[in-house]
Amino acid sequence: MSAPLVSIVTPSYNQAAYLEQAMQSVFAQNYANIEYIVVDGASTDDSRRIIQKHARRLAWWVSEPDQGQTDAINKGFARSTGKYLAWLNADDVLYPEAVAEAVAYLEAHPQTGLVYGDADYIDAGGRVLGRFPAAQTDYARLRRGYVHIPQQAAFWRADLWQQVGPLDPTFVFAMDYDLWVRLARISRIQYLPRLWAQFRLHADSKTIQNDQRAWDEMLRVHWREGGGHLAPIVAKYWLRRLVAPLIHARRRRLLAA
Q: In the prediction, which pLDDT does 254 show?
């Protein structure tokens, strides 16, 4: 049997400093049947030249104005034809065995809709800073704010995307959390302790700039799913607001080290 097709989408905007490394990490996968799509939002840096340099290895690419990252991801998945889907941001990296191991698990466990592994935190230069706290979660725990899914290391079934997608275009930070909740509501999600990706933290990344907005959007998901005001995720939201300055200061010290 032929290996199932995997569609990977990279959204990008003015990420020339990291884009080629992200693309090369997809090309370097030890899994051959990958449909790679790059959606650039009309970058004004060197991104278009980098994409054109590798255009023959892409299933499709575009560089045109869009409504932001979420819109770019939706645009890419609208063009995808794979059995399994993933997106890799232009400043992140996949380890070579990620796709093969994810596909092997999903093929062997048809009841699982999404599988995810581990991710290293790296800085702008690629230095490993630590490990993302990935752990097993499910619909009930996601609803409590127990996320623990590194988006860079997540793969899911395209037929489920057809049921729950596309991403909500009004979300800027927590569109991945929103998707995990939708997928977990209708299927099993599974954590595998395998190192599949690198999650880059740098001065211009959204995680460093203003990740409080992610929690604002997570609460929107909570209300949509019928959550109440006394739910654990609401308490976590207010606690997060309280300690946010300490979290941001720690991250900046980590990047400056």
A: 66
Q: Which band of pLDDT confidence, cut at 50, 70 and 90, is reported for residue 211?
A: low
Q: Where are the domains of the chain?
A: 6-256
Q: Report pLDDT for 203.
A: 72
Report the C-alpha gap between 119 and 200 in whole angstroms: 10
Encode pLDDT of 137-167 as tens digits: 999 999 999 999 999 999 999 999 999 999 9
Distances (CA, A) of 191 to 102, 110, 132, 184: 10, 15, 13, 12
Question: How many Cβ atoms from other residues are within 10 Å of residue 208's Cβ?
Answer: 15
Please give the model's pTM, rounded to 2 decimal places.
0.93
> What tens digit of pLDDT does each residue of 72-93 get?
999 999 999 999 999 999 999 9
Taking 80 as the threshold, does the pLDDT of residue 100 lie above it? yes
Backbone φ/ψ region at 230: left (φ over 0), alpha (ψ -120 to 50), beta: alpha
The CATH architecture annotation of domain 6-256 reads Alpha-Beta Complex (3.90)
